[in-house]
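Possible regression after last week's pipeline update?

I re-ran a chain I had predicted before the update to compare outputs. Posting the input and the new output here so someone can diff against the archived version. Not blocking, just want to make sure nothing changed silently.
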Amino acid sequence: MAGAAFVAPVSPSGQERLKMKSTIVIGAGIIGTAIAHDLQRRGRSVVLVDRDTPGKGASFGNMASIAVTEFMPASRPSVWKQIPGWMLDPEGPVRVRPGYMPRLVPWFLRFIAASRPSKLRALEAQGAALCARSLDDTMALLRETGLENQISEEGCLSLYTDEAEFKADRDHIEILERFGFPHEVLGRQAIKALEPELTDKISLAVLFPQNRSMKDPYKLVLALADRFRALGGRIEQGEVTGFVRGEGIREVVLKDGRRLPADEVVIAAGAFSAKLAKDLGEPIPLETERGYHTQIMAPGISMRHSIIWPARAFMVTPTAGGIRVGGTVEMAGLDAAPDYRRSKVTVRRAREALPNLRCEDFTEWMGHRPALPDTVPILSASARTKGLFYATGHGHLGLTYAATTARLMGDLITGQKPALDLHPYRINRF
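New output (post-update):
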């Protein structure tokens, strides 16, 4: 894969320090923190701003997966044609709360528009280009920050009870084959040898060796934030409520009245980026894809690999000192209360795959994943405001894309040529 070494950190002299550009990164999840760290290393004077402490949003509760094989557009006809039925099923893979449906119509129309065959091929290529770099870039970042022990060496298993389930997921495998992502089809004996706790009902599996899991994604963000501070970066807790603009953005205004001067601003606030972009005159069709997980600290079993079962729409990952069970999508906006029945559904399904799984000493969590209708993130300079940049819309691949996003945005912001053509990821593509 095409990962290159990170640029060497910059240690500016006193005179140079006076000339350093001040950059504010809004959003201290894994995406924003990785960007802030990258820019600080390149010689920017960076302030990382979030209304909460680092890593407390979607980065806290993601499925801890570097999911390099999961870039297929969700707008494939085989998916969206099932959505009306799913929405009527309270336990379906996609759930839209009835009161939220009218607000979702414009987004869903864009989602369907992204299902044209020519558009799908382009979106597949754009996702594959990012994912082809993601593991190498992640490993480079972990080595540079001394966090190599945070990532597993095991892959992910995709499970199927029979040939019919396998064929139903065939378009996924064909896309991986087209772009050269390694995978291996396994029979019952090989599956049992890798994960003895799996039910005998599983007759086929696909091993994705490049899909890895993190020991604790939240602790990873904290460690990266510590490295950022050690390089001279600053973290400010506060909610961004406005901007003071001239030729570009001059100040970021916080709810408590503080004003932070800035030569450059990066919007990397996940699902909350939509409001900021709208305030800045660049509305984007960004929705929240609400994700749930159950973190089980006394599961009664041990696992080496993460597992997904496409027909049952769940994932299980060994992480954070136990195992994490998640899956399914809920569309209900930023303000609706969590519906933890979603978590209980995925745990019940996980027990179909892992009959000895116990759900003891557990916590339930819900977070907001930033979802764009074409499932490709925005990695872009503003089309309207000098010195303004956006990195958002990573969906369920925030952790997967974080290191790659940081490198590409670092190049873009500092005037270097990014390793990928970022035109397809521009903010004004909609």
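Follow-up from reviewer: compared with the archived run. DSSP finds 14 helices and 21 strands in the chain. Marking as no regression found.
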